[in-house]
Amino acid sequence: DPHVAAVRASGLHVGGAFDFTVHPAARTDPLDAADLALVTVKAFDTPGVACALADCDLDAVCSLQNGLGNEERLATRLDGVLAGTCTYGARLVEPGHVDCTGVGEVALGAPDGGRSARAERVGRALRAAGVETTVADDMPRRLWTKLAVNAGINPTTALARVPNGALGTDPLAGIAREAARETARVARDQGVDLGDDEAVAALDAVVEATAGNTSSMLQDVLAGRRTEIDAISGAVVDRASSAVPVNRTLAGLVRTWEVGERYST
Asked: Where in the sequence of the chain do the CATH 3.40.50.720 domains occur?
């Protein structure tokens, strides 16, 4: 792996909002034991991570990923799974160099909500390392709120090939906001208290705060890579008990692009 090789040779330089270099023991094979595993891979790689970590003695496993269902997939093979969200922005500039494109926070807690002593321990460790961290007892609501934001931003920007800020005006704003509303309705059907207006407000706030950013799904499309559409818009469609036409259409269009991309390579 070129990134791991570069970090081993010269350390990991973090630029953008920060400017420092650290020298972690970069590796691609798991340790025999660890206090914490932070899972940050694409959602479709989660089952492989669960298998890779199955023989590792871990006190906690925290998902900081896009989409729904990651915690359940990890829990099929691992104990001590926590749910998390992360609003830090980052991009890989080159092997060994990552830029922080926006300072945010990590929120983590029990996947089903409520207090968690394990989450409290992880939260203390992250705060001690300088990471803005909230230990939350409402992770289901936070995960669905993030899903509403991603369902609005990711496929819309990917299909239109525009930065996040373009979703501040119609016609893109209307599409993104309706995708967020549909997601909130599905969340309520799943027992999560998320209002339509709250979902749209969260979407609009992220669009404004990250106006110049390129969404992760657009980065994947521009690079010709598989996207996380199944875990985002697809997850809304799969869990819906009533029509979600915007999410269904966005999922279908991105999946159609993926099929075409496979045929062209």
From this structure: 2-137
Residue with tokens 């501040």: 168
| 42 among known catalytic residues | no
Determine the topology of domain 140-264 in CATH. N-(1-d-carboxylethyl)-l-norvaline Dehydrogenase; domain 2 (1.10.1040)
Per-residue pLDDT of the chain (265 residues; tens, 9 = 90+): 899 999 999 999 999 999 999 999 999 888 899 999 999 999 999 999 999 999 999 999 999 999 999 999 999 999 999 999 999 888 899 999 999 988 899 999 999 999 999 999 999 999 999 999 999 999 999 999 999 999 999 999 999 999 999 999 999 999 999 999 999 999 999 999 999 999 999 999 999 999 998 999 999 999 999 999 999 999 999 999 999 999 999 999 999 999 998 887 6
Any idea which fold 2-137 has?
Rossmann fold (3.40.50)
For the question of whether the overall pTM of this predicted structure is more than 0.70, the answer is: yes
> Where does the chain hold its CATH 1.10.1040.10 domain(s)?
140-264
- Annotated catalytic residue: which of 73, 146, 181, 185? 146
